[in-house]
Amino acid sequence: MADDAREESQRLIAAAVGPGGPVQTQLHRRHHTSRLSQQRSASSSTSTSASFVSSPADFAPLVANANAKPYSRKHDAAVVILTMGPWQQRCETLRELQANFVKTNPADVFVFTVAGDGEATRSLAECLGALPDFYVVDMIENADALGWGTPDHLKDRRLWGGPWTEGYRRMGHWRLTKQFALFRNLGYRYALQVDDDSEFPSPGVSENLFEIMKRDKLKIGGRASFPEGHNVAVGLPELARYFIVSEKFEPSPLLYSHCKPPNIEGLVSDLTGKGERGWDRWMFYGNFVIFDLDWIHEEMVQRFIDLIAQSGGHFRFRWNEQASLAMVWQMFVREGEYRVFKFPYVHGVVDSRLEDLQG
Question: Which of 96 and 130 is assigned the larger pLDDT?
Fold first, then answer.
């Protein structure tokens, strides 16, 4: 079935673009730290700004910690959290994260405050000061260095669809286009994106998920996946289709398994929500996702992320990083290269306690 879908898609692409070479297959092509890729990372308008952090030495002065704990990378993994408070409640949640996740999953934990309240940032830093390898950074105070803000080509609010706040749109933009470059520049192999209100109840996570990612050569892993509403990703499948056709790129068979029909003809938006035709919008919940930073920086992956950012759909509409990275996952990852992890966890509709009751 997968081979038939791939052959049919290749036939359709060839008919659309005509002669000009074979369809590209670059799912496993890795680009590590060559001078060219470093220059590209430093200059990309969608990955960094002119003064964007490019080394640990650049990042160290940004760390706000009441106990004057200097920044140094201790682990291969980074846990990345954005928060607006309330600070005392967040401090308690982060202490739970330390006790029930980081204890078995050693990582450097970065808490970025986005409320623009320097005193609150320092209070949170003081509260977390006793926790090893926890760092608090004021995102607003260091906006240029960290790439936080509204892209120039999207500042006209008349372009914005839906009721979502500018802060929410900025969060999705930063997660999609900035965080990966930042933590790769700091030397990390894995980045865990987690929400500030994610709960890790006892007895906690017993396995080292980062070691599982490394051992099993996984590119992405999450706590739960689901089909998002049909109005969330309108236009994203068409952008992916444009990329596939224009680049003569052969996506993972995983992509077409989420389309009706299961080939490029099914890579369209489901405008009715009936599921009769189009992409099914299956994605990881963005409140807990682990990314292999080597994979996310492969050339074709970055080119597609750049295309999303340049289109502005992730900011103007509700694609955000969640739907955008779902498309990246299905286009560039094969079966066996991703994982849905199971462990005690609570965030909104994701509740391991209910899962246990349901068997």
Answer: 96
Q: What does the alpha-carbon distance between residue 67 and residue 86 come to, in Å, rounded to a whole number? A: 21
- For residue 23, what is the DSSP state? P
pTM confidence score: 0.86
pLDDT digits (tens, 9 = 90+) for 174-193: 999 999 999 999 999 999 99
Helices (H), the chain: 2-17, 35-43, 56-59, 87-97, 118-128, 143-146, 166-177, 179-185, 209-215, 236-247, 253-256, 293-296, 299-311, 313-316, 320-332, 352-358
Residues 6+ apart with CB under 8 A from 66: 122, 125, 126, 129
What integer pLDDT is reported at residue 245 of this predicted model?
98
Q: CA–CA separation, 193 vs 291, rounded Å? A: 8
- Tell me what pLDDT residue 51 has: 79
| Tokens describing residue 6 | 């791939």
How many Cα atoms sit within 13 Å of 275 on the Cβ side?
7
Q: CA-CA distance, 326 to 166, in Å (whole number)?
A: 22
